[in-house]
Amino acid sequence: MTQQEYEQKLDAALEELDWHDPRSRESDAHKVLEAASVDKSLSLDEWMRLYERYRKAVKRL
Questions:
Q1: Would you kindly state where each structural domain of the chain is located, as residue ranges?
Q2: What is the rounded CA–CA span in Å between residue 47 and residue 59?
Q3: What is the rounded CA–CA span in Å between residue 44 and residue 37?
Q4: For the chain, how far is it from start to end, CA to CA, in angstroms?
Q5: pLDDT of the residue at 24
Q6: Between vectors from CA 37 to CA 26 and to CA 34, what angle results, nearest 5°?
Q7: For 2-36, how does the pLDDT look when each residue is reduced to its tens digit (9 = 90+)?
Q8: Cα separation of 15 and 41, whole Å?
Q9: Other C-beta atoms lying within 10 Å of the C-beta of residue 11
Q10: Distance between CA 19 and CA 21 in Å, rounded?
Q11: Taking each helix axis from N to C terminus, what angle separates 3-15 and 28-38, rounded to the nearest 10 degrees?
Q12: How confident is the model at residue 60 (pLDDT cuts 50, 70, 90)?
């Protein structure tokens, strides 16, 4: 998967985050990050951009 595809999946998952427990490992957003972390086609910088997007969305809740 490309970074743009991961970003699209992450954005969709972030819209559905539970505001009671946004950092839950069971959330779809966390699962997208997990999948991206083991994807060898993404560089560390690309993964860090995804993580920063996730972190900022969680902070807003």
A1: 3-60
A2: 18
A3: 8
A4: 28
A5: 87
A6: 10
A7: 999 999 999 999 988 877 788 888 899 999 999 99
A8: 26
A9: 14
A10: 6
A11: 160
A12: confident
User: In the numeric block, which tokens belong to residue 34?
Assistant: 């997990």
Question: By three-state DSSP, how is residue 22 classified?
Answer: coil
Q: Which two tokens stand for residue 47?
A: 């993964």
> 11 with 34: CB under 8 angstroms?
no
pLDDT at 39 over 90: yes
Q: Which two tokens stand for residue 45?
A: 């910088």
Which amino acid is it at 41? S
* pLDDT value of position 43: 96
Identify the CA nearest to 14 among candidates 6, 39, 46, 38.
Answer: 6
